[in-house]
Inverse folding.
């Protein structure tokens, strides 16, 4: 029974990956299964609407029932970003000793949606629900680093870059250079750009469509954040954000 289930799931995955459809013989060769076994599985899946066969080409593909189930599953609370991020935030704060945040993209701004505060006496606190610009916050720059080139250009054309501190990047070219560095590193930094005395390290989160929808960040006083410590903590933040992306169904491009 378990073997049959495994094989049926293998067939479903193969059908989903075959964008132009796949023949019975191709499917049999790909899965290295007897032709009769694959045919029986396909017949059962087609009867339930999970597989379908084109009448003219005789090629198989995913059926409408599979899409309907996936659509309903995507609305399940299991895939809500706040729920997914909560455990990662707790682990980040436990590892780093700093306040961790979930920043969610809303329009051209970020909204702090979840937070786990640092246990230290001197710590950073940002009110959940607060809206902040993207260009001068760690989480915001992480989101910008995850955008497509045309999305980033549209953002820069429509956003006035005001200086919140002497360190705020208000030159579009300088900001683009900083975002390119963040993209290469896998995490962004906010070195007193939104508020003096505050340092932040953040990484982007992607949904199943490959869209950058949020970022995880850790923040603390500049007295505890040397460039070396930020470089050490960055990969931890990126790994946590990557796990959130995977839980949302994101598959990173290969190569």
């Amino acid at each position: 029974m378990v073997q049959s289930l495994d094989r049926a799931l293998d067939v479903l995955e193969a059908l989903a990956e075959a964008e132009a459809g796949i023949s019975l013989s191709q499917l049999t060769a790909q899965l290295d299964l007897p032709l009769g076994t694959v045919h029986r599985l396909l017949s059962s899946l087609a009867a339930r609407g999970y597989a379908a066969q084109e009448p003219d080409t005789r090629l198989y593909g995913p059926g409408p029932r599979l899409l309907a189930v996936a659509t309903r599953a995507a609305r399940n609370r299991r895939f809500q970003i706040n729920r997914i991020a909560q455990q990662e935030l707790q682990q980040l704060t436990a590892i780093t000793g700093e306040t961790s945040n979930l920043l969610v993209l809303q329009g051209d701004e970020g909204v702090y949606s979840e937070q786990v505060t640092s246990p230290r006496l001197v710590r950073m606190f940002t009110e959940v629900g607060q809206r902040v610009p993207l260009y001068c916050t760690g989480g915001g720059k992480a989101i910008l680093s995850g955008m497509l080139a045309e999305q980033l250009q549209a953002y820069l054309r429509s956003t006035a870059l005001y200086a919140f501190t002497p360190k705020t990047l208000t030159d579009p070219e300088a900001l683009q250079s900083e975002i390119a560095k963040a993209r290469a590193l896998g995490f962004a930094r906010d070195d007193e750009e939104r508020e003096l005395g505050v340092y932040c390290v953040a990484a982007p989160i992607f949904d199943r469509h490959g869209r950058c929808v949020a970022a995880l960040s850790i923040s603390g006083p500049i007295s505890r954040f040397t460039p070396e410590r930020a470089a050490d903590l960055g990969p931890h933040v990126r790994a946590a954000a990557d796990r959130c992306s995977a839980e949302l169904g994101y598959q990173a491009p290969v190569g």
